[in-house]
Amino acid sequence: MNKKSLPATQKQGKVGLGDQIRSIADRLKQETDVQIKATSRILGAAAQIAENHDRLINEVVDMVESDLNAEKEVSQKHTYTVDILKQQFKTLRNAKAHFNLKVSSWESLVNKLNAVSSQTSIIQNKTQSNHGLTNNSVIVCEDNFNNIEKLTVFLEPDVAKMFPNSEAVNEGLRFLIRVTSKNSF
Fold first, then answer.
1. Residue 179 contacts residue 55 (beta carbons within 8 Å)
2. Which carries the bigger pLDDT value, residue 140 or residue 16?
3. Which of 48, 71, 110, 155 is geometrically suited to a Cys-Cys bond with 159, CB 3.0 to 4.6 A?
4. Angle, CA 163 vertex, CA 160 and CA 169 arms, to 5°
5. How far apart are CA 79 and CA 117, in angstroms?
C-alpha cells in the first residue's frame, strides 16, 4: 500500500507545484500589466508637463520681448536732452518754471524729466492693460509718484545680488505681477 500511495502523493505534489508556478506567472503578468499602465500614465503626465513648460516659456519670452519693445518706444518718444531743453526754453529758470521742478542744473533737470517720463509711461501702460482702473487711478498714481520715491525697502544679501538697484527690483516685481495675473485667469 505504501508503494501505491507514494506515487499518488508525488503526482499530487507535482500537480500542486505546477499550479503554483502558473499562479505565480499569472500574478507576475498582472503586475507587469499594472506597471506598464502606470509607466504609460507617468510618461503622459511628463509629456503634458513638458508641453505646459514650453508654453509658459514662450509666454515669458513674449512678455519680455513686449516689455523691451515698449521700453524702447518709450525711451525714443520721451527722452529729453540738455540741448533740446535749452533750445525750447532758452534758460534753466524758464524750464524749471514750465515743469515746476526744483533743480540746480540742466543735467539734473534732464535726469528728473526722463525718470518721471519713463515711470509715468509705465504707469499709463499698466493702467491701459488693466481695464478695471479708471482715469482717476492714473492721476492718483502720478500724484503719489513723489511719495513712492520715499519708500525704502531693505533687501537680503542674496536678493541684492540679483537686484543691484531699484530699477531692477521694480522691473522684477512688475514682471512677477504680469506672470501671476496672466496665469491666474
1. no
2. 16
3. 155
4. 120
5. 8
